[in-house]
Amino acid sequence: MEDLLLGRWISTRALLADTGTWALRTSRSQVLAAAAAKGDAIAAWYAEQPDDANALMMRARVMTHQVLAAHRSTADRHTLLPKVSAARAACEDATRRWPVDPVPWVCLLALAQLDVDSNHWHHAYNWAAPPESLLPPGPWPLLWQVDRRHYPNREAYHRMLQCFQARGRGAVDFTRWVSSQARPGSVQLTLPLYAYVEDYRLRTAGGQIASTLRFWDDQPVQHYVERARDGWFAVTDTSTCSLLDLNYLGYTLTACGLPGAADVFEAIGPFATPAPWQHLSESRWWEDDFVQARNYAMKPGRPGR
After folding, report:
1. Residue 256's CB: how many other CB atoms inside 10 A?
2. Which residues are bridge partners to 138 per DSSP?
């Protein structure tokens, strides 16, 4: 990370060459791109080694990261479109160079969240027909391309969720469908937690929820939180779990008043993540909300202790 900030790319090349799984390649490249997007290290690497598959992949990663950052900082769709097109072209270059790599397809999925107007779409594959009638149209062909190479790819399914959230429809239905297809122990079982937390945040901000308990006491909500607890957390080596997934599970178990939150907080340790706590906190000090929830869950005599 430090090398990238200083414009050096040799250590990044060595790290990626020593990355042995698609899951690790996906997560490492995402983190590296966040640092590299602040400088020109990857552009220099690509200029020197334009046929290197990792250089092409990281170029696509960085350009995608920069486009998403630009989108968050501006509402001008027209100035963003050329950057979206350039990033998509970089992704396509990377797919041609190393066809088995899922990461460029994950980047294309990330770009799909910017394609929100069905009357002025960026690319037809972002509005493809869903596999089932109750699901919304979306970038399904891109998801299938990732699935063919690496199933289940955690980031790919989160990018798909972000696309539906950006369009304002279909997010919860998508995550329920994914959860219903997931195998025991699959991290996909945590996906509905993200959809429900965001749905709760939007409803609360819009004054659509009179009572917090009414939302989290809903039987379907509790069903999917319990599935994440029993089907994923209970059978997974917690040392390999995403801290973000653990924090979402800890939050939703506590909000629902379900047993088992204490074990989740023990797995989290001191490593609270801003999401979801900061997104839903009513004060500046979201860390206090985390500590309060943890203390309540671990209180002697609580169910599940």
Report:
1. 21
2. 128
Q: Which of these, 63, 70, 127, 112, lies nearest to 91 by C-alpha position?
A: 63
Q: Which residues contact 259 (CB under 8 A, 6 or more apart)?
A: 253, 302, 303, 304
Q: What is the pLDDT of residue 205?
A: 84
Tokens 């394609």 map to which residue?
115
Written as six digits, the tokens of 207 are 């004054």
Estimate to the nearest angstrom the gap between the alpha carbon of 202 and the chain centroid: 18
d(CA 254, CA 233): 15
CB 258 within 8 Å of CB 242: no
Residue with tokens 């270059």: 93
Distance CA 38, CA 102 (A): 24
Query: What SS3 state is found at 175?
Result: helix
Q: Which two three-digit tokens encode residue 92?
A: 């396509």
- Other Cβ atoms less than 10 A from the Cβ of 117: the count is 11
- Torsion, Cα 183 188 193 195, to 10 degrees, reads -120
Helices (H) and strands (E) in the chain, counts: 17, 0
* Mean pLDDT for the stretch of residues 151-155: 97
Poorest-pLDDT segment among 38-42, 76-80, 190-194, 229-233: 76-80
The number of residues making up the chain comes to 305
Q: In terms of DSSP H, where are the helices of 18-136?
A: 22-36, 41-48, 53-73, 77-97, 103-112
With CA atoms as reference, report the closest residue to 116 among 130, 136, 131, 135. Answer: 136
CB contact set of 298 (below 8 Å; sequence gap of 6+): 262, 265, 266, 305
- Phi, psi (deg, nearest 5) at residue 128: -75, 160
